[in-house]
From TrEMBL:
Residues 80-288 form the Endonuclease/exonuclease/phosphatase domain. One of its GO terms (cellular component) is membrane. Keywords: Endonuclease, Hydrolase, Nuclease. It holds the Pfam family Exo_endo_phos. GO terms for biological process: GPI anchor biosynthetic process. The lineage of its organism: Bacteria, Bacillati, Actinomycetota, Actinomycetes, Actinomycetales. This is Endonuclease/exonuclease/phosphatase family protein. GO terms for molecular function: endonuclease activity; exonuclease activity. Transmembrane segments: none annotated.
Length: 348
Protein backbone atom coordinates (compact mmCIF):
# COMPACT_ATOMS: atom_id res chain seq x y z
CA UNK A 1 0.00 0.00 0.00
CA UNK A 2 1.40 3.37 -1.00
CA UNK A 3 1.59 6.40 1.22
CA UNK A 4 -1.65 8.35 1.29
CA UNK A 5 -1.44 12.11 0.76
CA UNK A 6 -3.51 14.63 2.71
CA UNK A 7 -4.44 18.28 2.01
CA UNK A 8 -2.46 21.06 3.65
CA UNK A 9 -3.69 23.64 6.17
CA UNK A 10 -3.15 27.36 5.72
CA UNK A 11 0.56 28.16 5.52
CA UNK A 12 2.34 30.28 8.11
CA UNK A 13 5.69 32.05 7.77
CA UNK A 14 8.15 30.38 10.17
CA UNK A 15 10.46 32.25 12.49
CA UNK A 16 13.97 31.89 11.04
CA UNK A 17 16.69 30.34 13.17
CA UNK A 18 19.85 32.16 14.19
CA UNK A 19 21.95 29.51 12.43
CA UNK A 20 21.15 27.35 9.44
CA UNK A 21 24.37 25.33 9.50
CA UNK A 22 22.50 22.16 10.36
CA UNK A 23 19.03 20.68 10.71
CA UNK A 24 18.04 19.70 14.25
CA UNK A 25 15.61 16.80 14.60
CA UNK A 26 14.33 15.66 17.99
CA UNK A 27 12.64 12.30 18.44
CA UNK A 28 10.79 11.67 21.69
CA UNK A 29 8.46 8.98 22.97
CA UNK A 30 6.08 11.20 24.92
CA UNK A 31 4.54 8.28 26.86
CA UNK A 32 1.25 10.25 26.81
CA UNK A 33 2.82 13.02 28.89
CA UNK A 34 3.19 10.97 32.07
CA UNK A 35 5.98 12.10 34.44
CA UNK A 36 8.66 9.47 35.19
CA UNK A 37 7.64 9.39 38.84
CA UNK A 38 3.94 9.05 38.02
CA UNK A 39 1.00 11.36 38.53
CA UNK A 40 0.52 13.09 41.89
CA UNK A 41 -3.28 12.75 41.62
CA UNK A 42 -5.49 9.65 41.59
CA UNK A 43 -4.77 6.93 39.02
CA UNK A 44 -7.07 7.28 36.02
CA UNK A 45 -5.37 4.70 33.85
CA UNK A 46 -8.23 2.23 34.00
CA UNK A 47 -11.89 2.22 34.91
CA UNK A 48 -12.16 -1.31 36.26
CA UNK A 49 -10.89 -1.90 39.77
CA UNK A 50 -9.06 -5.12 40.70
CA UNK A 51 -11.43 -8.02 41.21
CA UNK A 52 -10.41 -8.56 44.83
CA UNK A 53 -11.22 -4.96 45.72
CA UNK A 54 -14.56 -4.67 43.86
CA UNK A 55 -15.83 -8.21 43.52
CA UNK A 56 -19.57 -7.59 43.28
CA UNK A 57 -21.35 -5.93 40.33
CA UNK A 58 -22.64 -3.17 42.61
CA UNK A 59 -19.13 -2.34 43.85
CA UNK A 60 -17.74 -2.38 40.33
CA UNK A 61 -20.54 -0.12 39.05
CA UNK A 62 -19.98 2.38 41.87
CA UNK A 63 -16.26 2.46 41.11
CA UNK A 64 -16.99 2.89 37.41
CA UNK A 65 -19.29 5.89 37.97
CA UNK A 66 -16.80 7.49 40.35
CA UNK A 67 -14.01 7.09 37.81
CA UNK A 68 -16.10 8.46 34.97
CA UNK A 69 -17.76 11.40 36.68
CA UNK A 70 -15.58 12.26 39.66
CA UNK A 71 -14.82 15.97 39.00
CA UNK A 72 -11.97 16.32 41.47
CA UNK A 73 -9.73 13.63 39.97
CA UNK A 74 -10.50 14.60 36.38
CA UNK A 75 -9.79 18.29 36.92
CA UNK A 76 -6.65 17.53 38.94
CA UNK A 77 -5.29 15.35 36.14
CA UNK A 78 -5.99 18.09 33.56
CA UNK A 79 -4.09 20.67 35.61
CA UNK A 80 -1.16 18.34 36.27
CA UNK A 81 -0.99 17.19 32.63
CA UNK A 82 -1.00 20.75 31.32
CA UNK A 83 1.73 21.76 33.77
CA UNK A 84 3.91 18.81 32.81
CA UNK A 85 3.55 19.56 29.10
CA UNK A 86 4.30 23.25 29.69
CA UNK A 87 7.54 22.30 31.44
CA UNK A 88 8.40 19.91 28.61
CA UNK A 89 7.69 22.56 25.98
CA UNK A 90 9.99 25.01 27.78
CA UNK A 91 12.92 22.57 27.53
CA UNK A 92 12.20 21.72 23.89
CA UNK A 93 11.91 25.42 23.04
CA UNK A 94 15.44 25.98 24.38
CA UNK A 95 16.74 23.30 22.02
CA UNK A 96 15.39 25.29 19.05
CA UNK A 97 14.57 22.21 16.97
CA UNK A 98 13.58 22.31 13.32
CA UNK A 99 11.48 19.14 13.50
CA UNK A 100 10.09 17.17 16.44
CA UNK A 101 8.83 13.61 16.02
CA UNK A 102 6.66 12.34 18.87
CA UNK A 103 5.38 8.88 19.72
CA UNK A 104 2.70 7.68 22.18
CA UNK A 105 0.66 10.87 21.82
CA UNK A 106 -2.82 11.20 23.34
CA UNK A 107 -5.73 13.25 22.08
CA UNK A 108 -8.72 13.67 24.36
CA UNK A 109 -7.80 10.77 26.67
CA UNK A 110 -8.86 10.76 30.29
CA UNK A 111 -5.48 9.56 31.56
CA UNK A 112 -3.78 12.69 30.14
CA UNK A 113 -6.39 15.22 31.24
CA UNK A 114 -8.26 15.17 27.88
CA UNK A 115 -5.54 17.35 26.35
CA UNK A 116 -4.79 17.37 22.60
CA UNK A 117 -1.11 16.83 23.32
CA UNK A 118 0.30 17.42 19.83
CA UNK A 119 -1.56 20.69 19.38
CA UNK A 120 -0.69 21.77 22.93
CA UNK A 121 3.04 21.25 22.39
CA UNK A 122 3.05 22.80 18.91
CA UNK A 123 1.49 25.99 20.25
CA UNK A 124 3.65 26.07 23.38
CA UNK A 125 6.91 25.57 21.47
CA UNK A 126 5.93 27.80 18.56
CA UNK A 127 6.02 25.31 15.71
CA UNK A 128 3.25 26.29 13.26
CA UNK A 129 3.25 23.15 11.10
CA UNK A 130 2.13 20.01 12.87
CA UNK A 131 -0.08 16.98 12.52
CA UNK A 132 -1.11 14.01 14.62
CA UNK A 133 -1.54 10.62 12.96
CA UNK A 134 -3.81 8.31 14.94
CA UNK A 135 -3.05 4.60 15.22
CA UNK A 136 -6.57 4.20 16.58
CA UNK A 137 -9.57 6.31 17.54
CA UNK A 138 -11.57 5.97 20.74
CA UNK A 139 -10.88 5.85 24.46
CA UNK A 140 -7.88 3.97 25.84
CA UNK A 141 -10.12 2.33 28.45
CA UNK A 142 -13.05 1.64 26.11
CA UNK A 143 -13.82 0.55 22.58
CA UNK A 144 -11.21 1.48 19.99
CA UNK A 145 -11.27 1.33 16.23
CA UNK A 146 -9.04 1.96 13.28
CA UNK A 147 -10.01 5.43 12.01
CA UNK A 148 -10.97 5.90 8.39
CA UNK A 149 -8.83 9.04 8.36
CA UNK A 150 -5.77 9.03 10.61
CA UNK A 151 -5.84 12.83 10.90
CA UNK A 152 -8.57 12.83 13.54
CA UNK A 153 -10.03 16.25 14.34
CA UNK A 154 -13.17 15.80 16.44
CA UNK A 155 -12.69 12.47 18.21
CA UNK A 156 -10.21 11.21 20.74
CA UNK A 157 -7.39 8.86 19.84
CA UNK A 158 -3.78 7.82 20.23
CA UNK A 159 -0.81 7.75 17.88
CA UNK A 160 2.22 9.75 16.72
CA UNK A 161 2.79 13.38 15.76
CA UNK A 162 5.24 15.57 13.87
CA UNK A 163 5.94 19.25 14.56
CA UNK A 164 7.90 21.45 12.14
CA UNK A 165 9.27 24.96 12.16
CA UNK A 166 9.38 24.97 8.35
CA UNK A 167 6.51 24.78 5.84
CA UNK A 168 5.21 21.35 4.93
CA UNK A 169 4.70 20.64 1.25
CA UNK A 170 2.62 17.50 1.81
CA UNK A 171 1.61 15.06 4.55
CA UNK A 172 1.52 11.29 4.04
CA UNK A 173 0.59 8.23 6.06
CA UNK A 174 0.93 4.47 5.72
CA UNK A 175 -0.44 1.75 7.96
CA UNK A 176 2.22 -0.79 8.91
CA UNK A 177 -0.11 -3.42 10.35
CA UNK A 178 -0.01 -5.10 13.72
CA UNK A 179 1.65 -8.09 15.36
CA UNK A 180 -0.14 -11.31 16.16
CA UNK A 181 -1.84 -11.85 19.52
CA UNK A 182 0.58 -12.65 22.34
CA UNK A 183 0.26 -14.35 25.72
CA UNK A 184 1.10 -12.19 28.73
CA UNK A 185 1.94 -14.07 31.90
CA UNK A 186 0.67 -12.88 35.24
CA UNK A 187 2.12 -13.88 38.59
CA UNK A 188 4.35 -16.64 37.23
CA UNK A 189 6.10 -17.73 34.07
CA UNK A 190 5.61 -21.15 32.51
CA UNK A 191 8.68 -22.73 30.95
CA UNK A 192 6.70 -25.22 28.91
CA UNK A 193 7.77 -28.85 28.73
CA UNK A 194 11.51 -28.15 28.62
CA UNK A 195 12.02 -30.21 31.81
CA UNK A 196 9.66 -32.99 30.91
CA UNK A 197 5.96 -33.37 30.20
CA UNK A 198 4.85 -34.15 33.76
CA UNK A 199 6.97 -31.35 35.25
CA UNK A 200 5.56 -28.85 32.77
CA UNK A 201 2.02 -30.02 33.39
CA UNK A 202 2.41 -29.69 37.17
CA UNK A 203 3.93 -26.17 36.95
CA UNK A 204 1.19 -24.83 34.64
CA UNK A 205 -1.47 -24.02 37.31
CA UNK A 206 0.96 -21.85 39.30
CA UNK A 207 1.67 -19.74 36.23
CA UNK A 208 -1.95 -19.29 35.13
CA UNK A 209 -3.25 -16.49 37.48
CA UNK A 210 -3.28 -13.20 35.61
CA UNK A 211 -2.55 -14.72 32.20
CA UNK A 212 -4.24 -12.88 29.35
CA UNK A 213 -4.13 -12.57 25.58
CA UNK A 214 -2.82 -9.23 24.32
CA UNK A 215 -3.78 -8.08 20.81
CA UNK A 216 -1.14 -6.49 18.61
CA UNK A 217 -1.30 -2.70 18.39
CA UNK A 218 -1.81 -1.01 15.03
CA UNK A 219 1.33 0.79 13.87
CA UNK A 220 1.55 3.64 11.37
CA UNK A 221 4.13 5.65 9.47
CA UNK A 222 3.70 9.41 9.31
CA UNK A 223 5.72 11.26 6.69
CA UNK A 224 6.05 14.80 5.38
CA UNK A 225 7.88 16.65 2.64
CA UNK A 226 9.30 19.66 4.48
CA UNK A 227 10.68 22.81 2.83
CA UNK A 228 13.82 23.51 4.86
CA UNK A 229 16.65 26.01 4.18
CA UNK A 230 18.58 23.04 2.77
CA UNK A 231 15.84 22.12 0.33
CA UNK A 232 12.96 19.67 0.49
CA UNK A 233 13.47 16.73 2.83
CA UNK A 234 11.26 13.67 3.37
CA UNK A 235 10.87 13.01 7.11
CA UNK A 236 9.24 9.87 8.47
CA UNK A 237 8.08 9.26 12.03
CA UNK A 238 6.97 5.90 13.40
CA UNK A 239 6.54 3.75 16.49
CA UNK A 240 7.18 0.10 15.70
CA UNK A 241 5.89 -3.05 17.35
CA UNK A 242 7.43 -4.59 20.46
CA UNK A 243 7.73 -7.97 18.73
CA UNK A 244 11.22 -8.00 17.19
CA UNK A 245 10.43 -9.80 13.94
CA UNK A 246 7.36 -7.67 13.30
CA UNK A 247 9.28 -4.46 14.08
CA UNK A 248 12.06 -5.43 11.68
CA UNK A 249 9.57 -6.01 8.87
CA UNK A 250 7.79 -2.72 9.65
CA UNK A 251 11.13 -0.88 9.66
CA UNK A 252 12.01 -2.05 6.16
CA UNK A 253 8.58 -1.07 4.80
CA UNK A 254 8.69 2.31 6.52
CA UNK A 255 12.17 3.12 5.19
CA UNK A 256 11.23 2.09 1.65
CA UNK A 257 8.18 4.36 1.85
CA UNK A 258 10.30 7.34 2.91
CA UNK A 259 12.63 6.70 -0.02
CA UNK A 260 9.62 6.70 -2.35
CA UNK A 261 9.04 10.32 -1.37
CA UNK A 262 12.67 11.37 -1.76
CA UNK A 263 15.45 8.88 -2.42
CA UNK A 264 18.23 11.49 -2.16
CA UNK A 265 17.06 13.42 0.93
CA UNK A 266 15.18 11.30 3.44
CA UNK A 267 15.09 10.70 7.19
CA UNK A 268 13.20 8.13 9.26
CA UNK A 269 13.14 8.40 13.03
CA UNK A 270 11.04 7.37 16.00
CA UNK A 271 10.78 4.61 18.58
CA UNK A 272 11.84 1.50 16.66
CA UNK A 273 11.52 -0.84 19.69
CA UNK A 274 14.69 -2.49 18.38
CA UNK A 275 18.30 -2.54 19.44
CA UNK A 276 20.53 -0.82 16.90
CA UNK A 277 22.07 -4.16 15.86
CA UNK A 278 18.62 -5.66 15.20
CA UNK A 279 17.62 -2.62 13.15
CA UNK A 280 20.85 -2.85 11.14
CA UNK A 281 20.22 -6.55 10.51
CA UNK A 282 16.74 -5.78 9.21
CA UNK A 283 18.04 -3.06 6.89
CA UNK A 284 20.80 -5.34 5.67
CA UNK A 285 18.16 -7.37 3.81
CA UNK A 286 17.42 -4.39 1.57
CA UNK A 287 19.07 -3.84 -1.77
CA UNK A 288 22.39 -2.01 -1.43
CA UNK A 289 20.99 1.08 -3.17
CA UNK A 290 18.12 1.34 -0.67
CA UNK A 291 20.12 1.14 2.55
CA UNK A 292 20.51 4.32 4.64
CA UNK A 293 23.79 6.18 4.35
CA UNK A 294 23.79 6.86 8.09
CA UNK A 295 22.20 5.11 11.07
CA UNK A 296 22.18 6.97 14.39
CA UNK A 297 21.36 5.59 17.82
CA UNK A 298 22.10 6.23 21.48
CA UNK A 299 20.89 4.77 24.76
CA UNK A 300 17.56 6.37 25.61
CA UNK A 301 15.40 3.86 27.53
CA UNK A 302 14.50 3.47 30.34
CA UNK A 303 14.81 6.96 31.68
CA UNK A 304 16.42 6.07 35.03
CA UNK A 305 19.19 3.86 33.66
CA UNK A 306 19.24 4.17 29.85
CA UNK A 307 20.42 0.92 28.28
CA UNK A 308 18.32 0.41 25.15
CA UNK A 309 18.78 2.25 21.85
CA UNK A 310 15.15 2.36 20.76
CA UNK A 311 14.97 5.99 19.56
CA UNK A 312 16.98 5.83 16.34
CA UNK A 313 17.35 7.74 13.07
CA UNK A 314 18.05 6.61 9.51
CA UNK A 315 19.22 9.08 6.88
CA UNK A 316 19.84 9.19 3.15
CA UNK A 317 21.73 12.20 1.81
CA UNK A 318 22.49 13.53 5.31
CA UNK A 319 25.44 13.19 7.69
CA UNK A 320 25.66 13.97 11.42
CA UNK A 321 27.19 17.21 12.66
CA UNK A 322 27.70 15.74 16.14
CA UNK A 323 26.97 12.54 18.02
CA UNK A 324 23.31 12.02 19.06
CA UNK A 325 22.43 13.43 22.48
CA UNK A 326 19.88 11.96 24.89
CA UNK A 327 18.14 14.40 27.23
CA UNK A 328 15.83 13.83 30.16
CA UNK A 329 12.58 15.83 29.97
CA UNK A 330 9.90 16.42 32.63
CA UNK A 331 7.69 13.66 31.19
CA UNK A 332 8.01 10.12 29.79
CA UNK A 333 9.92 6.96 30.60
CA UNK A 334 12.11 7.65 27.52
CA UNK A 335 14.82 10.22 26.95
CA UNK A 336 14.49 12.64 24.05
CA UNK A 337 17.23 12.20 21.43
CA UNK A 338 18.64 15.15 19.48
CA UNK A 339 20.08 14.61 16.00
CA UNK A 340 21.94 17.43 14.23
CA UNK A 341 22.31 16.76 10.50
CA UNK A 342 23.67 18.50 7.42
CA UNK A 343 23.41 17.55 3.75
CA UNK A 344 26.03 15.07 2.62
CA UNK A 345 28.60 16.69 0.34
CA UNK A 346 28.11 15.82 -3.30
CA UNK A 347 31.04 13.87 -4.71
CA UNK A 348 31.89 13.95 -8.40
Amino acid sequence: MKLRRFPLPEQVTPTPLASTDYLRIVTFNLHHGKPPSGWPDADLGGLVAPAKQHSTPRQWWAHFLASMFGPSTASARAVNAAGALEDTAAVLRELRPDIICLQEVDKGQRRSGYLPEAEFLANAIGMPYWRMTAAFAGAMSGLRRRPVHTNITRENGYGIAMLSRWPVKSWHVKRLGRARWSLQWGSGFWRGFSKGFLTGLKSLPAAMPGVRLIPGEMRVLQAALILTPFGTIAVGNTHLDTHRGTAQSQLRRAWRSVLELSRHSGVLTGDFNLYADDAAAALGLLDQTMRPSWHGATQSFPVKVPQKTFNQLLAAGWVPVAAPRALRLPVSNHLAVVYDLKPRPVTH
